[in-house]
Write a structure and sequence with these properties.
This protein has 19 helices and 13 strands. It has a 7-stranded parallel beta sheet with strand order 3-2-1-4-5-6-7, sandwiched between helices. The chain has a 6-stranded parallel beta sheet with strand order 10-9-8-11-12-13, with helices on both faces. It has 427 residues and is α/β, with parallel strands linked by helices. Helix 5 runs antiparallel to helix 6, helix 8 runs antiparallel to helix 9 and helix 15 packs across helix 18. It has 2 domains: 247 residues, Glycogen Phosphorylase B (Rossmann fold), CATH 3.40.50.2000; 158 residues, Rossmann fold (3-Layer(aba) Sandwich), CATH 3.40.50.2000.
Length: 427
């Protein structure tokens, strides 16, 4: 693959750069359980430390859960999507220009957190650039981070997928012109991300489809890109044979109100299954907004008593939930990679996945696939697994083998370190 060739050609003599590296990982928003960014930072930092490197995570709220060997630098923001506009005092707005930007953006339906985090990260790091060998940004893609590259930092940026895909699906799902206008306003930061991405020296992405989409949607030169898939912690995400599986229990992990995640498709399939198969139930790792579209759909489909929602679970609690389920579902309309897919496979849960984005590449023959948006086809595939114990055992084994052979955080860290070291010679 062109990206792999570019990386291999760029790696300098290891003996010249054999010492442990001092690495700063940046994340503008790093929730530990909702979405993949906090998981990525936690697992990557753990793997880098295990390989002997010194890691500092610099994050805005919500902050990630990190191992004791990883330093966390907190860059507070207003965190308005958790606190609300009314939680901000006039004095704070007067004293802090970035707080004013966040508050006014939220007031008018925008999302300024990537930009304001990058401004804070730049101001924190510029006087400390000598303390780090590499700065690895996790998809902030904002001007302040680009300023670090201009100042001579060895900058590497992970783009999981271009957020143009989220915007496109959100616009398609909008009910009327007013909602479409609000969606376009919220996603205005995407223009900044594309502009910044085009100027980055080294971009990492996680799959072939994301590689192609970043080139197409963001206009990034493919010669500056490398593909490094993430992994899964097999010491945590593992089969738990002592836990009894519920025969009609499904499980999914989704940001419940994000159209891209396709939870509405799974809910419609669940309603079908409850009329054709029996008392099928769903464990949802994620919690819908009380007045959001997902909760309204649950009510409309009369599924209130068929769904159990969990949030802020520990990894062990999440693994226990997987162990109780007979089938895992990833219903996404698009995924740049799909960490929930490999977590389910690592737990030995038979998987049904959409064919959205990178998911077919990630799961290959270790899951039953259905076409994006087709709730009837999803229901058929789930019913097929629920009705055949031998088929469930087969797909469980396929998933375990695929994850063990392809998705290791240690391998991910090793390949990223090679890229970090390649940048040392050009800074």
């Amino acid at each position: 693959m062109p990206a792999e060739q570019t990386l291999a050609q760029a790696i300098p003599d290891e003996s010249a750069y054999a010492r442990p590296l001092r690495i700063a990982l940046l994340g503008y928003r790093s929730a530990p359980h909702t979405g993949g960014q906090g998981v990525y930072l936690r697992q990557l930092s753990r793997a880098l430390v295990a390989a002997g490197h010194e890691v500092t995570v610099i994050s805005g709220p919500p902050y990630p859960h990190l191992d004791d060997g990883v330093q966390l630098v907190k860059l507070p923001s207003l965190d308005l999507y958790a606190a609300g506009l009314g939680a901000v005092g006039l004095g704070q707005l007067c004293a802090d220009r970035l707080a004013r930007t966040e508050w006014l953006s939220k007031l008018t339906g925008g999302f300024a957190e990537p930009w304001t985090f990058a401004e804070r990260a730049r101001d924190y790091l510029l006087p400390r650039l000598h303390e780090f060998d590499v700065i690895h940004d996790n998809q902030t893609l904002a001007d302040g981070v680009l300023d670090l590259q201009r100042a001579g930092a060895n900058l590497v940026t992970t783009i999981h997928h271009p957020i143009t895909r989220d915007r496109r699906h959100a616009i398609e799902q909008a009910a009327n012109w007013r909602q479409r206008l609000l969606v376009r306003r919220w996603y205005r930061f995407v223009h900044m991300q594309a502009r910044v991405a085009q100027q980055l020296n080294r971009v990492v992405t996680v799959s072939g489809p994301s590689y192609r989409d970043i080139c197409t949607d963001f206009g990034v030169d493919s010669r500056r890109m490398s593909i490094v898939p993430p992994g899964v912690d097999l010491t945590v995400f593992r089969p738990r044979p002592e836990v009894i599986r519920e025969p009609l229990r499904l499980i999914t992990t989704a940001s419940a109100d994000a159209p891209l995640k396709g939870l509405d498709i799974l809910l419609k399939a669940l309603a079908r299954l409850r009329t054709t198969v029996g008392d099928v139930r769903l464990t949802l790792i994620g919690r819908p907004k009380a007045d959001g579209v997902t909760q309204r759909l649950i009510t409309d489909l009369n599924l209130q008593d068929a769904i159990e929602c969990y949030s802020a679970l520990s990894d062990e609690d999440m693994v226990h939930c997987y162990a109780q389920a007979s089938v895992a579902v990833v219903p996404s309309r698009y995924e740049g990679f799909g960490l929930p897919a490999i977590e389910a496979m690592a737990c030995g849960v038979p998987l049904v996945s959409s064919a959205g984005g990178a998911l077919p590449e990630v799961v290959q023959d270790a899951a039953l696939l259905f076409q994006v948006g087709d709730d009837e086809a999803l229901a058929r595939q789930v019913a097929l697994l629920l009705g055949a114990e031998n088929l469930r055992a087969d797909y469980s084994e396929r998933g375990l083998k695929r994850v063990a052979s392809e998705y290791s955080w240690a391998s991910c860290a090793d390949r990223l370190v090679a890229l970090y070291r390649a940048g040392l010679s050009s800074c």
